[in-house]
Write a structure and sequence with these properties.
Elements: E1 4-5, H1 16-23, H2 36-49, E2 53-57, H3 60-71, E3 76-81, H4 85-88, H5 93-98, E4 101-105, H6 115-121, E5 131-138, H7 148-161, E6 164-168, H8 172-179, H9 184-187, E7 192-196, E8 207-211, H10 213-225, H11 234-246, H12 251-265, E9 282-285, H13 289-300, E10 304-305, E11 307-308, E12 312-315, H14 322-338
Parallel strand pairs: 1-10, 3-4, 3-5, 5-6, 6-7
Antiparallel strand pairs: 2-8, 7-8, 9-12, 11-12
The structure holds pyridoxal-5'-phosphate.
Pyridoxal-5'-phosphate is lined by residues 59-61, 64, 85, 138, 168, 170, 196, 198-199, 207.
């Protein structure tokens, strides 16, 4: 049975062509800066994002942490979304390892932070308070594309207030493809950007932090401290280069598949799915936990994997075909016809 795994876009497996590129990669010791493939990946992504430099990291959690730790010191603070990955889903790394305090704010409906609230949360320069140093945004945020004019305003706010600005751009390429712009139109508004190669882009491992030479040199030091200095990492970087070359434009297919899936599932009233809300590769719905369990078990028996906690999230990616979408809609309908 071919498994249709809608739990996340992290589940993609390297294609045969990607594996061939990995097998042929020229390698060296990257802690010495001598891995030509890692260096090539870093130059390539720096060029794409319009930054001076980039650093290959083992995960998005690590590259976000490197970003935060390169802008903030012990006793500093970063402003971040309440449900942002960099606050909620990274084990509290900035606080645990950097002694950096988060100031979480609720995301608005469109995935942005209210800029007036951001301003109001900046602490006065007074020793009672942590020093507010950094604003962190996320794009896409739960599949939502942050508008370019908002990014411009957020950047102006940060510059005006002397804050650094970091983007968790785990899925920045999904946002760029959706907007039909080069990714640098998004990344140009930030000091640092973390991009995941191992989500929809389909590489097995790896993320990159992009920024100025000075910030990336700081990040390189922290990466070593965190145990993230890898040696012949070119084998992994080769997958990243392959992904950036061959898997960016095709993200549009994942977006189209998510839309089709949402349209099909919208016919099941109980799910309350509004296809017009689907912008990229994610669909969300909520369901009573016990009914969800029954649905999940039914689908699993038919080779369809879904997951969720308070909210259920379906994600399309490289390994979900249009046929897979059709099968999924059919099996959802079968289940609800019986339930
Ligand atoms: C997946 C993800 C990350 C990084 O996750 P890793 O699993 O550590 O690579 C960061 N931010 C967002 C929004 C993500 O979805």
């Amino acid at each position: 049975m071919k498994i249709i795994d809608l739990r996340s876009d992290t589940v993609t497996k390297p294609t045969a062509a990607m594996r061939a590129a990995m097998a042929e990669a020229e390698v060296g010791d990257d802690v010495y800066g001598e891995d030509p493939t890692v260096n090539r990946l870093q130059s390539m992504i720096a060029e794409m994002t319009g930054m001076e430099a980039a650093l290959f990291a083992s995960s998005g959690t690590q590259s976000n942490l490197l970003g935060v730790m390169s802008h903030c010191e012990r006793g500093d603070e970063y402003i971040v979304g309440q449900h942002a990955h960099t606050y909620r889903f990274e084990g509290g790394g900035a606080a645990v390892l950097g002694s950096i305090q988060p100031q979480p704010l609720e995301f608005q409906e469109d995935g942005t932070l209210d800029l007036e609230e951001v301003v109001a949360s900046i602490k006065p320069n007074d020793f009672h308070f942590a020093r507010t140093r950094l604003l962190c945004l996320e794009n896409t945020q739960e599949g939502k594309v942050i508008p370019l004019d908002y990014l411009e305003r957020a950047e102006a706010l940060a510059r005006g207030r002397g804050l650094a600005i970091h983007l968790d751009g785990a899925r920045a390429f999904n946002a760029a493809v959706k907007l039909g712009v080069p990714v640098r139109e998004i990344t140009m508004h930030f000091d640092t950007v973390s991009i995941c190669l191992s989500k929809g882009l389909g590489a097995p491992v790896g993320s990159v932090l992009c920024g100025s030479k000075a910030v990336i040199e700081k990040a390189r030091r922290w990466r070593k401290v965190l145990g993230g200095g890898m040696r012949q990492a070119g084998i992994l970087a080769a997958a990243g280069i392959y992904a950036l070359t061959h898997h960016v434009k095709r993200l549009a297919q994942d977006h189209e598949n998510a839309k089709l899936l949402a349209e099909g599932l919208a016919q099941i009233e109980e799910l309350g799915i509004d296809p017009s809300k689907v912008q990229t590769n994610m669909i969300f719905f909520s369901m009573d936990p016990s009914r969800f369990k029954a649905l999940q078990t039914y689908l699993k028996g038919r080779g369809i994997l879904i997951s969720g906690r308070e909210k259920v999230r379906l994600v399309t990616h490289l390994d979900v075909s249009r046929d897979g979408v059709g099968t999924t809609i059919e099996e959802f309908k079968n289940h609800f016809a019986k339930a």
